[in-house]
Amino acid sequence: MSLHLIFGDEDVSLYNIQTHAKGADGSLPLTSEMLLDSPSGDLFGLSQNVGMGWAPSRLLGKQILILGTQGGIRHENGAPIALGYHTGHWEIGLLMKEAAEEIRRQGGVPFAGFVSDPCDGRSQGTTGMFDSLPFRNDAAIVYRRLIRSLPTRRAVIGVATCDKGLPAMMVALASMHDLPTIIVPGGVTLPPTNGEDAGKIQTIGARYANNEITLQEAADLGCRACATPGGGCQFLGTAGTSQVVAEAMGIALPHSALAPSGQPIWMEMARQSARAALEMEKKGLSTKDIMTDKAIENAMVVHAAFGGSTNLLLHIPAIAHAANCKIPTVEDWTRINKKIPRLVDVLPNGPVGHTTVKVFLAGGVPEVMLHLRKLGVLHEDVQTVTGETLGANLDWWEKSERRALMKKQLLETDGIDPDDIIMDPIKAKERGLTSTVTFPKGNIAPEGSVIKSTSIDPSVVGEDGIYRHTGKAKVFTSEKSAIKAIKHGSIEAGDIMVVMGGGPSGTGMEETYQLTSALKHLSYGKHVSLITDARFSGVSTGACIGHIGPEALAGGPIGKLRDGDMIEIIVDRNELVGSVNFIGTENERLSLADASQVLKERSLHPDLQPNPDLPDDTRLWAALQSVSGGTWRGNIYDTDRIIEVLKAGVKALEEEQLNV
């Protein structure tokens, strides 16, 4: 390296530096009252606004803040100048632009701020995953600080798409109790005409290692998986489920979730949302009018009907906490999933597995809600961002031209009957769709666990609807060692993989899609079960039990398992009850009472430890969310509880020092 390499032969015209400028033409529209009564920040803000080029004559319109997760730098023609982390935030700026232009047309003054977001797909199997779930809380804090840092904003529009950015945006907006807020879901990418979706494509390494695809097939399929440049994944993972949940809560417009990114109907949705935000401000409709206990329950009901990602069991409680609503418990989730049938045939659950854009064309969230309305399980009296109740929105949808034309296009373009994607309860039952989640307990998971029971391969489920697997444990203290075992042929049909140390204290509660996706797409994978204190991607399927509590590093029994231990898993997909128990060894079966006592007396696995690369930021997050109620309260920050614990700790330290 040299100075000449860095500076080169500079163009001398660079040295012609301007030291003053004329400034904007015109005058600020000030009044005597403004000068006497307004804080200096409001007045200086006007100076900065014209400094950025806004016309002085248009300064007094209503100021609307647009927050987005935009990532990367795009040329005007869409070509990449600097890549984003993922397609989900690559085109978000287009939605923000459409919303801003609509606000301007309506006489308002739009502002924009950005907090980009990570990609769980990009960080799978890497130390980047240690920052994934903690990012949600951090981003929500920054969003809230940005909102408060523009004191003159009259409403907030949040534009977001994917796994952590959208939940973070919803948590932040739910906190703005007295402001009008609205979510603009960022939409979905299209699948390749010939190829694999973005979920299956993440298994090319495991399938190649097991000789199930060739090197060339992996290269060709990988090149086509993200067939369009923007939007969340083509399956109903955490990104798509979060969009669905936002709409179900009433904080996003009807039929806005899962729109195809970059297309005219997607951009029109941003303009419609901007108009809605302005109308909310005019009518005095604020977030607290929309985000209620009833709205939270509607979201849980729709989540069950869609068969959504289990990650929303972490996000919906956090949103409820931010909104000052009742935080759902495991009992609430169980109650709702027992009474709500799954009605949507969408990737990754199947049975056919349609893509998210086809769910949108089949009618999306409002179409599902029409079926739920007939079952009488929705709170139709809740307010929504349209200014109307949910019931009124559904009345409009049922008779709308939009609904008819969407379904017609799906039938004519793809030859798919919309009623084969979004079904009535009778057809759904005939097609084998089962309720979404089960919460197994047992001596391995005394505080509970979760499995997306609807996605267990039907061929390994008994005729009575019960999945049963008793097998020997193969224990791993890191995801890295577990995926190595899969790729190197150390896992066989009948095994029960145990991955410990993946909870909040060990890895920031990493997502283990590397493992679950491999098991789904390898020929023997449906005959392997996985249990872990980590979490799963929204696209995960199979007999995979996660969120096991207590986590291993908190002394949970999962951390005491050893290779060769016999484990019994029972999951009733009809009654939504299940168990996961250590039952002894192959040579010595034990009663549950005796087995529980053996676990109690065992020491933790000798190789169990927090990942040595765990960042201090994540360690702090893990500690704060732990004293706030942990995973089952949504990994939140309960400020009052944290302060209470800190005060108690300070007092204990002071007393300890006095006694020295």
Automatic annotation (TrEMBL):
Its EC number is: 4.2.1.82
Q: Which GO terms describe its cellular component?
A: cytosol
- Highest rank taxon of the organism: Bacteria
Domain Dihydroxy-acid/6-phosphogluconate dehydratase C-terminal, residue spans = 439-580
The yes or no answer to whether the keyword Lyase is present is yes
Its keywords, alphabetically, are: 2Fe-2S, Amino-acid biosynthesis, Branched-chain amino acid biosynthesis, Iron, Iron-sulfur, Lyase, Metal-binding
Where the record annotates domain Dihydroxy-acid/6-phosphogluconate dehydratase N-terminal, the positions are: 86-392
Tell me yes or no: is Methyltransferase among this UniProt entry's keywords.
no
User: Catalyses which reaction?
Assistant: D-xylonate = 2-dehydro-3-deoxy-D-arabinonate + H2O
Q: Which Pfam families match?
A: ILV_EDD_C, ILVD_EDD_N
Any GO BP: monocarboxylic acid metabolic process
Q: Which GO terms describe its molecular function?
A: 2 iron, 2 sulfur cluster binding; xylonate dehydratase activity
State the top-level EC class: lyase
Role description: Catalyzes the dehydration of D-xylonic acid to form 2-dehydro-3-deoxy-D-pentonate.
Family per UniProt? Belongs to the IlvD/Edd family.
Q: What is this protein called?
A: xylonate dehydratase
Q: Which organism is it from?
A: Shouchella clausii (strain KSM-K16) (Alkalihalobacillus clausii)
